[in-house]
Amino acid sequence: MDIQFFKESPFTTIISFHKLIESFEEIALSDVDYRSNYAKAILEQIDLIPELRTGITDYAIIKENEALIKNILADLFPTALTNNEIKAVTIPFQNISFNYTERFKKILKNAGDEFYMEIRDFSEHQFYINNCCLILSYYYKQHIDFNQPFFYDIPDENGVEKHYRILYNADFMEIIPTENSIPLTQEDINQLIDNYNDIDLWKSKFPKGSWILRGFGIVSLFDATTESAISILKSNLLKPGPKTVATDQEVSNIFQSIFNLPNLKVGFIIYNPEEEKFIRPAKYENQMKSFLLYADQEVDCKNAFFGCSFENLLDNKEPFVISDVTKFTEESTNKRLGEHLLNQKIQSCIFAPVIKNDHLLGVVELVSENPRDLNSVNATKLDLVLPYLTDTIDRYNTDMQHQVEAIIQREYTTIHPSVYWKFKKESQNYFQNLNHTKDYIFKEIVFKNVFPLYGQIDIKSSSEHRNETVKIDLKSQLTALLEIFDNQKPNSNLVLLEQRKFELESLRSELDFPLKADTEQHIQRYIEEEIHPILKNTKGNAKDEKLAELYFERLDEKTGMFYHERKKFDNAMSIINKRLATVLDRKQVEAQQIYPHYYERFKTDGVEHNLYIGASISPTKPFDIMYLHNLRLWQLQTLCEMELEHHELKESLPYELDVTSLILVFSSPLSIRFRMDEKRFDVDGTYNARYEVVKKRIDKSNIKGTNERITEKEKITIVYSQNSEEAEYLKYIKYLQHKKILEPSIEQFEVEDLQGVSGLRAIRVKVINNTSKSGTKKITYQDLLDELN
Asked: Cross-referenced Gene3D superfamilies, in alphabetical order (predicted)?
């Protein structure tokens, strides 16, 4: 018998068999001879030990009379069921137990002499209040549902922890108040029910030892190992945060209980669909290991290491089971995998896919040192736990995705989808290493051996147009101010009026000459500081005040200056840029279908774009130079379409602007590197810098030996350096001429030498502007403004 009380209890416990003895007395008076004789014989022995009826407080009496007590309890503990049932006499919630069935005895023997049986997660607080609830339920007849699942965790002979659900039978017990008990009103009971955690309140209503618990109870256990282990696993998986993740040993213990295998170990790897790789999460490397990757952080799932063994797992999402690794190694064509497992002393294993919405999330690894411990039969037990693993991994992936997105936005800003995977990988490495003490240093993002494509549509003479609109607005403003001053009558209080008129006329005269860098700012500052105070502080006649009011109404809210012509120019620029960028973005969706490539565009005085294509940008798809040629033809066609789009816009624009188009051909592969300080890609290395030099200077260059720019309105200029590039683009031009997109005539010339760059040549060809469709509704300037806004 185990005797272990908590320190305090509202009960004084007295073990008594009086209810059973009373039933024996009834049987002794019955007409059934063999039952009556048996009862009389038992009663004769009981009379020798009156404590069995009156109550036992000296627990040595139970030990001395085990045989008699067993006979008294024979009807409740049938001999035929002793090897099947797990039963004993007990006092509820107390570690007092005796008269075990044979199966119960065997379970305790296998647990070892040092094992102490106690209810899982049962505190002294719970013990005291549960006993109080017994009094409320049985004595005060309150309907209180205080029962909850109780478990004993008992190891078997192999050390595998088994979980047994506890059921109590209290039919042979009675609860008796003592003179120290406190009678409770319904109000007292309601107060207790509303204050479960107030242990002092409960003790004040049920003082220590103020009630007698007389009789005995029966405890029955049933093996709930699988269900309990799954519940424990679920609780561990639901714990938030990396620091509360169950350790490798904790998870192994849970699976050992489910599979009843003491040597079972558990591992896990995550599947990365972007790179088709298996990854061992470094974040949890101290809590969860992997037997497939072992020393590796990641491995390609199509690696020869896995061979064809994992085809069923990857394609059909079914577990891969090896019940005898030695035999597998001898007979399989994939000896490398078998040897890898044997080196870790693994003799049987199950690799089960974790699936969510038909997508592979990862692989659970179960391994054992014994052959046939794990097999296709017990592999079905994974069906019980995989749903919880699936939800946990999905939640982990979602959480990681959100944090990765935040890292990318913070460290890299917006990234094009074609190269997103590499930024994501580096951000994942950062995320996985958050728990490490060593600071993580971001690796530079570099893509090697990529082919560049550069193109632009530029607003022709945009600087001259802008300066012209500035001069028109400034002249209009100065003229309006002079008109106001001319209408004012001489006033002795404004002796500087004539001087200000002279200064305004001088400034207006300056605008007949080319603008200097600071002319606009100089005039604006002069008007704001010298002229506007005069207009605001001078009282004139009604006509003067009306002119001043109209003048101030014409000022732009943001600049405080006349902004009429410049606004037309800026709106025209914005409309052109938006329309052309929209065409380019729309066509880019099609271009990505050719082969995934990096794409970026910029709106300046026109629209520029950079493309980079190569195997390093899309490592999972084989690269061929054919994709580069396809993309070059796409680029030429797209610039033609952008030219046509501008041609259709011209008539509707508030300010007429022409555009020129340019393509720079560069056939040598180069490397691009993401500049962390500038949050953008740039070419890498001194040799590759030549490409950037040409790109920045080429559109302002002239035809060699002339003052004529290489670019011209409504024409596309293609700059190149090699004969092979010339032949390639002439083919494209001939094809587009056949499609009536380009005019028949072709210009070819040399480009003037640039700083450090010489030998460039160019082809120039005109786009046919006959795409206007009759019957199409004419686009108005207001339509374009609405679209812009």
From this structure: 3.30.450.40
Amino acid in position 184: L
pTM for this predicted structure? 0.52
Burial 332-350 (b: 16+ CB within 10 A, else e): bebebbbebbeeeebbbbb
- 707 versus 289: the higher-pLDDT residue is 707
> Edge-to-edge strands of the sheet including 217-223?
97-98, 86-90, 217-223, 161-169, 150-155
Rounded average pLDDT over 282-311: 66
pLDDT of residue 722: 92
**Highest mean predicted confidence (pLDDT) among 100-109, 545-554, 600-609:** 100-109
Residue 64 identity: E
Query: What are the phi and psi torsion angles at 272 (to 5°)?
Result: -105, 105
**Of 248 and 193, the one with more pLDDT:** 193
pLDDT band, very low/low/confident/very high, at 186 (cuts 50, 70, 90): very high
3-state SS track over 47-109: HCCCHHHHCECCCHHHHHCHHHHHHHCCCCCCHHHCCCCEEEEECCCCCCEECCCHHHHHHHH
Residues with Cβ < 8 Å from 669, sequence gap 6 or more? 448, 449, 450, 451, 614
The alpha-helical segments, DSSP class H, found in 596-752 are 625-649, 689-697, 723-738
In whole angstroms, give the CA distance from residue 481 to residue 531. 8
**Distance set, CA 333 to CA 8, 168, 307, 367 (Å):** 68, 58, 8, 21
The helix/strand/coil state of 750 is strand
In the chain, % of residues over pLDDT 90: 33
What is the signed CA dihedral for 301, 306, 310, 311, rounded to 10 degrees? 80
Name the nearest CA neighbour of 663 among 691, 627, 699.
699
Whether 502 shows a pLDDT value over 70: the answer reads yes
pLDDT in tens, 109-152: 999 888 888 888 888 888 999 999 999 998 999 888 777 788 99
- Cα 776 to Cα 193, 221, 654, 772, 788: the distances in Å are 80, 85, 20, 8, 21
Mean pLDDT across the chain: 83
| Centroid of chain to Cα 188 | 52
Residue type for position 593: Q
Q: At residue 492, does pLDDT exceed 50?
A: no
Alpha-carbon distance of 374 to 383, in angstroms, equals 15
Cite the beta strand spans of 120-264 per DSSP E.
150-155, 161-169, 173-177, 211-215, 217-223
Q: How far is the C-alpha of 163 from the C-alpha of 186, rounded, in Å?
A: 39
Q: How far apart are CA 290 and CA 304, in angstroms?
A: 18
The reported pLDDT for the residue numbered 545 is 77
Residue 111, helix vs strand vs coil: helix
Lowest mean pLDDT among 7-11, 62-66, 351-355, 438-442: 438-442
Compute how many other C-beta atoms are within 10 angstroms of the C-beta atom of residue 707: 7
- The Cα-based distances of 700 to 456, 460, 461, 682, 719 in angstroms read 12, 11, 11, 21, 13
Using CA atoms, how far apart are residues 133 and 146, in angstroms rounded to an integer? 7
pLDDT score of 271: 82
Q: Decide which of 463 and 327 is more confident.
A: 327
Q: Backbone phi, then psi, for 87, in 5-degree steps?
A: -140, 155
Give the length of the chain: 789
Phi, psi values for residue 672, rounded to 5°: -120, 145
